[in-house]
TrEMBL record:
It comes from the Bacteria. The keyword Signal applies. Keywords: Signal. It comes from Spirosoma telluris. This is Acetylxylan esterase. Residues 1-29 form the signal peptide.
Length: 252
């Protein structure tokens, strides 16, 4: 054999052997046979451009609502977001959160219950309250702000709900998860502070032992987030760590 072709022999041998192997070079295979179709790339889903609350929420009714099957509170008064200049979430120290929540507060009365549709002013921003039931165990604030055409990133969102207890319940704990930082009050008293850059994990933080009084109990929350998703979940655990379900939830 002419020596000028010797250098291509290894390549020819490799191609022949590869073609004989199962799953060998598809370039050497025949086109699709009868009834076969060439796989198509997946068609991307169109983005949601409807900006409607109904995808993730329903407007709360006047009827009281029970927690879900695992005790999570799905009914909240949610204030439109306070826009904040936050470029990263690792700034959420205890001191930062306390300062931010104090400065951008809609009311110094932590037992006040706003009304659905009511507006308040924080700084130069006029913001409206929504009484909503989340369709999931958590409240997705990213989807809320998207639905109402408000900023989705760099936000502080205030929350209020009313828990009605048939009797006094002692030694309970408020358990919350959020993305990224949050603070929670029960009947006007601080109950839990979740600082740092967190992911939303159920029961990521729990309060000291608390007492739910007979009748109405007011929960206030504040969730703050820079880049990324913003959402939270809250429930009460009894002294054995089981979720409380014998509660009624309202927004008034």
């Amino acid at each position: 054999m002419n020596t000028k072709y010797k250098h291509v022999l290894p390549l020819i041998s490799f191609i022949i052997l590869s073609a004989l192997q199962p799953g060998g070079f598809t370039a050497l295979a025949q086109g699709p046979g009868p009834g076969q179709r060439i796989p198509l790339p997946p068609i991307p889903l169109k983005g949601d451009t409807t900006h409607t609350l109904s995808k993730h929420f329903t407007l709360a009714s006047a009827n009281k609502k029970a927690p879900d099957a695992k005790g999570f509170i799905q009914r909240w008064l949610v204030l439109e977001p306070v826009k904040k200049d936050i470029v990263r979430n690792n700034i959420f120290t205890d001191n930062y959160l306390r300062t931010a929540f104090s400065a951008d507060n809609f009311s110094g009365d932590y037992t006040i219950v706003p009304k659905h549709g009511e507006t308040v002013n924080i700084g130069n921003q006029e913001l409206k309250w929504y009484a909503l039931d989340s369709k999931a165990f958590n409240v997705n604030l990213y989807q809320f702000t998207y639905a109402i055409n408000r900023p989705k990133y760099g936000i502080l969102v205030w929350l209020v709900t009313v828990i009605d207890c048939p009797e006094e319940i002692q030694n309970v704990r408020l358990a919350a998860g959020c993305n990224s930082g949050s603070m929670w009050w029960l009947n006007g008293q601080e109950a839990l502070l979740l600082s740092g850059d967190r992911d939303m994990i159920a029961d990521n933080g729990t309060s000291a032992r608390l007492t739910l009084k007979k009748g109405k109990n007011i929960i206030r929350g504040a969730v703050i987030n820079g880049p990324g998703m913003a959402n939270f979940c809250v429930r009460f655990l009894d002294e054995k760590g089981s979720p409380l379900k014998n509660l009624s939830i309202s927004y008034q």
